[in-house]
Specification:
CATH superfamily of the largest domain: Tetrapyrrole methylase, N-terminal domain
Number of strands: 10
Order of helices and strands: EHEHEHEHEHEHEHEEE
Strand order of the largest sheet: 3-2-4-1-5
CATH architecture of the largest domain: 3-Layer(aba) Sandwich
Shape: elongated
Strand content: 15-25%
Distance between the termini: 59 Å
CATH topology of the largest domain: Cobalt-precorrin-4 Transmethylase, domain 1
Structural class: alpha/beta
């Protein structure tokens, strides 16, 4: 009977290829199949770019997986099941599959759902995750800004249009990291002004990557159109 391969979730960091861990590097070298989220438009994700830097063997299979961008539960379930079966096909042949993801595989990652569905459909598959550097840690390093010290409390909050919820997040923490902030940036900046905290914020887009942009002056951002991979750190 063929031994089932292991599914690895490898965090490869927020964009800088040198922020990959030694363990993720080793598993990339060892795994015969490298799976990565594939963009429909053909551009490569940071995870894909980083994996390609460290994997040159022609014997490896680079397995691009397209994930549906929809809220339709029926479509999501169907497409996710299809994607998991594609990976299972390799695992059932005894091949280890290394799924690379930006940041950390256990933090707002595509791998979380991959792991969940794989466990439901094929519970016999061994699943191993390897932590990676998340974007908010990359931003803290870039800003030379301690996120938490001593007994300080930090909140990591997906930014939404709920202004009062965002206000409470700021009030209840010494530091707040707002993730995916671009879509509500004008509202958040307005809120910071109301609270007298506009000078306590810093914003980073595609942090640590070759496309990184940073701002510490919120006035420069009021009319900016920023990418999806944008976060804000507010430290009171």
């Amino acid at each position: 009977m063929t031994k089932i391969g292991t599914l690895y979730g490898l965090g490869v960091g927020p964009g800088d290829p040198e922020l990959i861990t030694v363990k993720s590097f080793r598993l990339l070298q060892q795994s015969p199949v490298i799976a990565y989220p594939k963009k429909r438009m053909g551009s490569k994700s940071y995870a894909h770019q980083i994996a390609e830097l460290y994997v040159q063997s022609p014997d490896k299979e680079m397995l691009g997986l397209v994930f549906p961008m929809t809220r339709d539960k029926e479509i999501l379930e169907r497409e996710w099941n299809n994607t998991v079966e594609i990976v299972w096909e390799r695992l059932s042949e005894g091949k280890d599959v290394a799924f690379v993801t930006e940041g950390d595989p256990m933090f707002y990652s595509t791998f979380i759902h991959m792991m969940r569905v794989m466990h439901e459909e094929h519970p016999e598959v061994p699943i191993v995750t390897v932590p990676g550097v998340s974007s908010f840690l990359g931003a803290a390093s870039r800003f030379n800004l301690p996120l938490a010290d001593g007994d300080e409390q930090i909140g990591i909050i997906p930014a939404t249009e709920d202004k009062e919820a965002m206000r409470k997040a700021i009030e209840n923490h010494d530091t707040v990291v707002f993730l995916k902030v671009a879509k509500v940036l004008p509202m958040i900046i307005g809120l910071l002004k109301e609270m007298g905290l506009a000078e306590k914020a810093a914003v980073a887009t595609k942090v640590t990557s070759s496309e990184e942009m940073v701002w510490t002056d919120m006035r420069e951002l009021e009319r900016a159109e920023l990418s999806y991979l944008t976060l804000m750190v507010v430290k009171k």
